[in-house]
Amino acid sequence: MPLEFLIAALVTLVVVVDPVGLVPTYLAITQGLPQSARRNVALRACLIAAAILAGSALAGDWLLRTLSITLPAFRIAGGLLLFSIASEMVFGVRIGRQSKEAEDAIEEHVRNIAAFPLAIPLMAGPGAITATVLLAGRSDGDPLRLAMLLAVIAAVLAICFVVFALAVPIAKLMGTTANIVLSRLLGVLLAALAVQYVIDGARAARAG
């Protein structure tokens, strides 16, 4: 059903990209910048991430066929990768890794912080790209579902931009404890989705 696909795509990408969870990292890498520069960084990062994920949705299936990788195999591998990310979220490893990547970017004076580390690998990282390709594969080439997936990508990145624009008040409102709890809950949800991808891949491989 298109509605079920839409809901699954929205939940998956929101959990994987985790806009609220990116607030501390965004504040860290834009520290000391004026408000206008921060907004420019947020906009550019969202556009870059949207382009990467849209490209993954449109060309992911072609790339798999070119590399002779079956969709069931990719579903299983993608599910395992997403489960790894989910475990990092549940055990608090991901937040620490994101902060470390942000600190490294600042120390190395990266010229375009919108591209790295914000857009890549924090927003459009391996997990988000994998999830996008998996969702594109579930569309079975249906133009309506692909259009819905592209709309979901645009919506999720628009949410990211809004969250970044409101980063300072959100950080004060959430607090450290609430942010940690939310990350753990989203991690559990992502783990369940990852297991489902593995099950779907195993079933498809057995049927084939």
Structure characterization notes:
There is one protein chain. The chain is globular. The two termini are 23 Å apart. Residues 106-111 have low confidence and may be disordered. The protein has 208 residues and is an all-alpha fold. The longest helix has 41 residues, at 167-207. It has helices spanning 2-17, 23-29, 35-66, 71-90, 93-107, 114-123, 126-138, 143-165, 167-207.
List the helices and strands and how they pair.
Layout: H1 2-17, H2 23-29, H3 35-66, H4 71-90, H5 93-107, H6 114-123, H7 126-138, H8 143-165, H9 167-207
> Given the structure, what is the number of helices?
9
The proportion of residues in beta strands is under 5%
Determine Rg (CA atoms, Å).
17 Å
Compute the number of strand runs: 0
Overall 3D shape: globular
What would the average pLDDT be, to the nearest integer?
Answer: 81
Q: Major sheet, described briefly?
A: none
Q: Pairing-aware structural class of the strands and helices?
A: mainly alpha
Extract low-pLDDT stretches.
Answer: 106-111
Q: How many angstroms separate the termini?
A: 23 Å
Question: Into which percent range does the helicity of residues fall?
Answer: over 70%
